[in-house]
Structures are given as C-alpha cells and as structure tokens.
Amino acid sequence: MSFDYGLKLGSLYGDTYIKLLEWQAQLAAQHFEKTGEITVIVQDNHPIHTSKQVREYWDKWQQQGLFFFQLPKYSSEMNLIEIEWHQLKIHELAGQIFPDEYDLAIAVKQGIEARAQKGGIAFLIHKRYIPDPEQLNQQRFKCAAQMREML
Questions:
Q1: 137-142 long-range contacts, Cβ below 8 Å, gap at least 24?
Q2: Which of 43-47, 74-78, 126-130, 134-138 has the lowest mean pLDDT?
Q3: What would the pLDDT profile of 83-101 be if each residue is shown by its tens digit?
Q4: Nearest-angstrom CA–CA distance, 4 and 108
Q5: φ and ψ at 104, to 5 degrees?
Q6: Cα torsion at 17, 18, 24, 30 (round to 10°)?
C-alpha cells in the first residue's frame, strides 16, 4: 500500500480531479510495466468520482493499469479515510486557529505526515496493488460477502 496525495486550496472540480488521476495513471503504468500488478484506488461515491467527465477516462486509465473500487453508498464505516480524518482533526488540528486556507492546508499536510509517522492510516487516496483483474473481482466478492454477514 502506498500513500500519494495532492493538496488543493478551495473546491475540487472535475478538471483538477482528472489531473490528479492522470498523475496516478502515469504511476500505475510505470508500476504495471515493472511488476505486472494493477493499481486500485478505493473511493467513495462522491459525485466527482463518478461524474461523466471522469468516467470518460476510465478505459484509458484501465489500459494504464489503474482501476477503481467504488465503496457502496452510505457506507462511511467502510471508508477508512473518514476514520483517519476524525483522528487528524482531534489529534493534530484540535485547538488551532488558521488565518487562511493556506495555513490550514499546511497544517493538514503536516498532520498527515505526523499521523503516518505514528502508524496512522494517513491517506487521502487509498490504493492497493493487486496482481491481476481476476483477483480484483475476487476481492470485490469477498468484500460484498463480508458486508452481507455484518448486516
């Protein structure tokens, strides 16, 4: 598992998200060429993640070895970043006042790095390398089966 992130002040729109994923696709292509392993980004169902603009790139990115695993809607307990954000807010950012977005962004970056040093999950993009697409499908079925057992 690795941790790559981009820091953006203000709102994140489709074109900026696509630039971030283009960067990830380049890294995925390099990784796939070296190892034969695909890269999987696990993400929630935020509208930007599945927008028409973004979906138009999916085939291209899959050819580069970059795949996406969409978490089910309304499953924040499965979205590990939600847990990490909570920890970041109460341990790294609590009690601080930031004069502007830039200072807040720097504090978030430093908090992520501090959480990573402490062994926290500390990721904004959660990705895992899986050897082949068939194994990805097996992982999806296993995850779905575990969810059914919990319900």
A1: 139/69, 140/69
A2: 126-130
A3: 778 888 898 899 999 988 8
A4: 14
A5: -65, -45
A6: -170
Q: What are phi and psi of 93, to 5 degrees?
A: -115, -10
* Per-residue model confidence (pLDDT) at position 52: 94
**Fold held by 2-146:** Nucleotidyltransferase; domain 5 (3.30.420)
Phi and psi torsions of 66, nearest 5°: -110, 120
Cα separation, 39 vs 65, in Å, equals 6
- Cα-Cα-Cα-Cα torsion 73, 74, 75, 77, nearest 10 degrees, comes to 160
Largest CA distance in the chain: 49
Task: Specify whether the CB–CB gap between 62 and 133 falls below 8 A.
Answer: no
Distance between CA atoms of 52 and 15, rounded to whole angstroms?
12
Q: Which amino acid, one-letter code, is at 77?
A: E
Has this prediction a pTM greater than 0.90? Answer: no
